[in-house]
Design brief:
InterPro entries: F-box/Kelch-repeat, Kelch-typ_b-propeller, Kelch_1. Helix content is 15%, strand content 33%.
Amino acid sequence: MLGDRACCVVSRDYPMSLEQENNRTCTNYEVDKNDGHAEKRKREEDEDVEVIAKKSLKQSDDPTPLAVGNTSAAPVEASDDQHAGDSSSLFLAIGRDNSISCLIRCSRSDYGAITSLNQSFRELIRSGELYRLRRQYGVVEHWVYFSCQLLEWEVFDPTRRRWMHLPTMNPNECFQFSDKESLAVGTELLVFGKEVISNVIYRYSLLTHSWSSGMRMNAPRCLFGSASLGEIAILAGGCDSQGNTLSVAELYNSETGTWSILPSMNKPRKMCSAVFMDRKFYVIGGIEGSEPKVLTCGEVYDLETQTWTEIPSMSPVRSVAAREAGAPPTTEAPPLVAVVNNELYAADYADMAVRKYDKLNRVWTTIGRLPERAASMNGWGLAFRACGNRLIVIGGPRTMGEGFIEVNSWVPSEGPPQWDVLGRKRSGNFVYNCAVMGC
């Protein structure tokens, strides 16, 4: 393809229209037309991809290529004629293994253009091999997936500050207006809802850039707590189709597409939140039973010992205004919590405060303020998420159907909360669902 010349990966200006790309198994997104700096960013990205590809070869301490076909990191011997004349070599001049070494260091924003080169590149992207290798070598990019319209999902890349659109979902009308939960795990975005009397899951695949349905949990539910760690996710609690509050937990493996029942929690709970911290799964807060009793305790699940342990007073304190008003607990959003660098943070929407959990003393302390324009309705419509080494808050002011969505970012390792606005766009709605995919 490139002959015997030295080569590198260079991003090109391929069409970004979803309609034109439907027959390809690639990850091109429709860039938001409101992005006034798109052309400038495109030129910068072209330069970035070229530099990354060149550096990936220069920075290799061992010139011997890695065996990547079976995701092994063991060095292998390479012959002079290895892959010669074979399209599977990707870049002929440097061989398949060095080609993949370059590609895993490229931004996944460029994978859509890369799939346009030939069938081998398309198959490589679609197989998920690149994403497995990125995870193995610690190359991770975090994108924010959120929905402000019932069937529409948008994507925000906080590094390149680019807005994109996913294909529109096509469920029935019952699902459209049902309560939904969302979860990003591996290279998938899962959206949980209800169709007539049964629970249903819609799955967006980053590999095929399409939605599908038909997946089922062992214990279908809604209003659960969930979190992901790499290719696995755990869901706990919630309520079934008859409204019974559950204590059951399940593990989902996105590589195999399988669900496994885990030991049940000590207490049934719904409208709870969940995070991974120190490679353990925590469930925080929630409501117990048909009579709405607010739970202040949390529970931690140890994946090695497969046991649950209750932790008292782990849930952030319920707002004073809500307690004084006597508002039912179900009117408030589940605890807004997120973990960065194995530290747990919470957003207090009533006091507009950021709190941090002291794991040793098991207490919450206020460390700063939320962004001033992060509006919500009892916590609903406000997204508070971990995104790599930063915390993000997605929300914004609105009046009479007019408003904005802002993506605010703070890096905890850099000091007390100082929020930077990464992106802003018009929106007449709150944020209904939000998830962060790191791959």
